[in-house]
Amino acid sequence: MPLRSRAGPRGLEHEPLRYGSLRLIAQGAVDALLWVASFDAESAPPDNALPMIVLGHPALAGRCRRAGSIFIAVSTPGIGSAGHVFRTDGTVLMPLRAARPDGLPTVAAVAQRLLAALPHRSAA
Fold first, then answer.
1. Is 14 within 8 Å of 99 (Cβ atoms)?
2. CB within 8 Å of 98: residues ≥ 6 apart
3. Predicted confidence (pLDDT) at residue 123 exceeds the cutoff of 80
């Protein structure tokens, strides 16, 4: 999906202004923030007071610890684990192999566990 898209009851919606994350955070339009930055320690989440879960590069840990946040170190695709790189315009997909496995969980594995921990809600 391109950035600033929403997967909702009406299917996929792409509206760059409406779903701009910095605007939504600034306006208090979101309840929490899930930040994923597995490639480097420079991609810290924006300043915010939201409850926050960060799935990040291990070196990012010190920049994301505060009350109301959870940091989970994840493996870097192509270095510590296999994975894929997608261009944000959706035109290129590149598979990656682990150069030196690090034993950290992948973003996909952590996301699956988080989803499994949510209360089951029937589609209504």
1. no
2. 75, 78, 79, 80, 81, 82
3. no
What is the pTM assigned to this prediction?
A: 0.79
In DSSP notation, 24-62 reads HHHTT--S-EEEEE-S-TT-PPPS--S-EEEEE-GGGGG
The one-letter code for the residue type at 34 is L
Q: Looking at residue 119, what is its pLDDT? A: 87
Rounded CA-CA distance 65/51 in Å is: 11
Question: What whole-number distance in Å separates Cα of residue 28 and Cα of residue 102?
Answer: 37
69-73 and 52-56 strand pairing: parallel
